[in-house]
Amino acid sequence: MTKNAIKNFMEKIAERDFSFCLTCQTCTNGCPCVSLMDYLPHQLMRLLQWEEFEEALKSKAIWVCVGCNACTHACPMGIEIPEIMDILRQEAIKVGIIAEKDIYEFHRQMLLSLKRHGRVSEFELILAYKTKKGHFFEDITLGLQMLTKKKMKLKPARLKERKKIRAFFEKCPL
Ligand code: SF4
Ligand code: SF4
């Protein structure tokens, strides 16, 4: 990361209260995703306190976090870890360090579907994601079962007021 990029990032992340983290690990103890993380939530807070930003941006943990808020509810200092994870993901995309490319692609296809229809079409999302990743026939049996049991629709449901949704994307392009 360049000095300028680090400075901008520090300004953005400084508004979050990670400096008050006590390393008590309560967040980690309640997090449902720790088994998939390289750095645990409390360790990520420590990395930020040490200004090891690049290491934090390179971590898989920021992509594995599902934003469930369990950590924030349990944290004695009320630190908003999911928001910090959001900032880290945005920054990782900006500087081109994406540790979990499949998760990133899934998020991207979901937002593209939301932009098109005003809500996410599961069928379109899975089709676009699988095509992009070249895993077209993987899970095809499961997909067919979902279609026959009407758990997934072929035709996307479209929101009438999707212009309003598109206006969000104009402000925050993908
Ligand atoms: S629960 Fe809060 S104070 Fe404790 S380690 Fe996690 S972020 Fe830090
Ligand atoms: S928001 Fe993320 S870090 Fe916090 S408990 Fe949920 S998955 Fe874990």
TrEMBL record:
Protein name in the entry: 4Fe-4S ferredoxin, iron-sulfur binding protein
GO molecular function, one term: metal ion binding
One Pfam family cited in the UniProt record for this chain: Fer4_17
Source species: Thermodesulfatator indicus (strain DSM 15286 / JCM 11887 / CIR29812)
Signal peptide: none
Domain 4Fe-4S ferredoxin-type residues, every copy: 12-42, 65-84
Native organism taxonomy: Bacteria, Pseudomonadati, Thermodesulfobacteriota, Thermodesulfobacteria, Thermodesulfobacteriales
A Gene Ontology term for the protein's cellular component: plasma membrane
Domain of life: Bacteria
Keywords, ordered alphabetically: Iron, Iron-sulfur, Metal-binding
Keyword Methyltransferase: no
Keyword Oxidoreductase: no
InterPro entries from the UniProt entry: 4Fe4S_Fe-S-bd (IPR017896), 4Fe4S_Fe_S_CS (IPR017900), HdrC_iron-sulfur_subunit (IPR051460), Helical_ferredxn (IPR009051)
